[in-house]
Amino acid sequence: MPDDRRRSLRRSLAHIVTALAVALSAATAHAAAQRTFVSPGGADVNTAANCALAAPCRSFGAAIGVTNAGGEIIVLDSAGYGPVAIAKSVSIISPPGIYAGVSVMSGEGITINTAGVEVTLRGLTINGQGGSVGIHFVQGSRLDIDGCNVGNMGAQGILIDGAGTISIANTTVIGNTGVGLEVDSAAVVAVIDSLVESNGSHGIAAEGGASMTVSGTTVARNGQKGLFVQGVAAGTRMAMTSSVVSDHASGAGLYAEALNAGDVVRLDVTNSTLARNASGVQVNSIASGNAKAGVVSNQIVENPVAGILAQGSGSSVIRASRNGVFRNGVGLSTTGGGVIYSPTTNYVRDNGADASAGTPAPDSLL
Predict the structure, then answer these.
(1) Which of 21-35, 43-57, 338-352 has the highest mean pLDDT?
(2) Do 364 and 347 meet the contact criterion of CB atoms below 8 Å apart?
């Protein structure tokens, strides 16, 4: 081959390699936007432009495909943006004053189901319109839910059935057919300054080895129990402070059970108000289950069955101190081998059957 032809071929190959490198670079940039945007005036074909501020997408589902892992999807204007399955670390953020809706016609609204991901949901409204679960954490490393509303789902409002670290703050969970917030795994969950109300089953359920903390939260008018805590061999734990649990006529405000041999459940409640539930605090263990509760510095009032109730043939023990226990059917009650210890004074007054239950007469301290 002549030298000039060889040189021409080399130049052509160099141009091809350069063009391929430019195309690859553009494709890489296209698939890895740090920040994407959605708007009611956007279009999902704008994924070609990375759902940029000047060319936003219409749905969360489209935007997440062109958002870099660890990036953000920002809502620009009020609208509904559709369900989304999240398989990467990402934040979906609706700023204050903007309504970002997820209407769930069937199935689940937002699903997190990839190992190791860290997800933030802020300012979203998930509304059931025939769907089953509002937010479902199947697996991942961390989920932060802040300032969201979850309601009208056909089953759970929020379901956590994978291990991870979960924070739920400034959030309302209202009017779901099943449990408002259900944790059925060894997740570590904090519920802060939230409202869980008028759900068809329990307000909050902790099972499967969960470790939960509830603070500054109101749990009210749910169909069964306010907070339901069920033990397993590895132990399920619930701590509540500075909260209100009220108006559960069909169940206890706080209920902890260990029903099988080897089950362990721990419940601690402080500085809270438990009012107008069937019982304020109820702990139940059978078949060698181990259920323990600490009930300290609470107002426990107008619960028609009992203010504090320990029952069951297993190891059911409540340590109660510095509580005000007023106007309940029975102030402090034990049945079936349950035990209540009072290491310091409780003020027990004006309950319907204190004396016959073996606790002090209405004007006494225990």
Answers:
(1) 43-57
(2) no
